[in-house]
Amino acid sequence: MNKSILILFLAVFFISCGNKTENKQVQEPTQGEQTAITADAPIVNVYYFHGKQRCKTCIAVGDLAKKTIEDAYSGNNNVKFIEVDTSDKQFEDLVNKYEVSWNALIIAKGDNSVDITEQAFANAVNNPIVLSDLIKKEVNQRAS
C-alpha cells in the first residue's frame, strides 16, 4: 500500500514539475562557494538540486531550505546553502557525485551526507516547521 502511494506521489510530482516553468536565474557561485563545493571542505553544504522547470512544491523546498539556513546560520561561515541547477554544466560533477536525476535536498560535510529529499517534498508545503527542524538537525549533526 505504501509503495503504491509513493509511486502515485512521484508520478504526480514529475507530471506537475514538467508542466510548470520558472524563469528564476541561478547565480554563479562565488569563489567562497566554489571552495564549499569541494568534497574535502570543512563546510556543511545544504544542496538544493533542481531542473529548469519547477512546480509549487519544488519551489517551496528550495525557498524553505534557503530561509532556514539564512535564519539559523546567518553568522556561521561554515554552513552554506547552494542552489544547483542540474542542467548547468558547471555543476555536472556535483550532480554525478550525488547521483541526482531530478530534484534533491542533500546536506553534506565532505563525504558525510544525508539525502532528505523525500521528507522535504512531504513537508515543505503543509508542514514547513517539520522540514526546517529536520534541516537544522542534520546540519547541526555535521557542524559539530
Describe this structure in words.
The protein has 144 residues and is α+β, with helices and mostly antiparallel strands. It has a single domain (2-20, 38-143), classed as 3-Layer(aba) Sandwich (Glutaredoxin), CATH 3.40.30.10. 49% of the residues lie in helices and 17% in strands. The chain has helices at 2-19, 31-37, 56-72, 92-97, 117-123, 128-143; strands at residues 44-50, 79-85, 104-109, 112-115. A four-stranded mixed beta sheet has the order 2-1-3-4, sandwiched between helices. A hairpin with a 2-residue loop joins β3 (104-109) and β4 (112-115). α3 crosses α6 (128-143). The model is unreliable at 18-40 (pLDDT under 50).
Largest beta-sheet characterization: 4 strands, mixed
Query: At the third CATH level, what is the topology name?
Result: Glutaredoxin
> How are the strands of the biggest sheet laid out side by side?
2-1-3-4
Residue share in helices?
40-55%
Give the arrangement of secondary structure elements:
Blueprint: H1 2-19, H2 31-37, E1 44-50, H3 56-72, E2 79-85, H4 92-97, E3 104-109, E4 112-115, H5 117-123, H6 128-143
Parallel strand pairs: 1-2
Antiparallel strand pairs: 1-3, 3-4
Helix pairs in contact: 3-6
